Amino acid sequence: MIWHHIEKGHGRPLILLHGIGMNSDAWVPVLDRLAVQRRVIAFDIPGFGRTPGIADQEPNAGAMVESLGQSLHQMGITEPVDVVGNSLGGYIALEAAAQGLARAVVGISPAGLWRDKGPAHIEPMFNVMRGFYRALPGLADRALATGIGRTLLLSGAVAARGWKMPARDAVQAARAFSQSHHFESVFEAFRPPFQSGDRISVPCTVAFGDLDMVFPVGTRDRNRVPSHTHWVRLPGCGHVPMWDAPDLVAHVILQGTH
Question: What distance in Å separates the CA atoms of residue 155 and residue 157, rounded to the nearest whole number?
Answer without folding.
Answer: 6
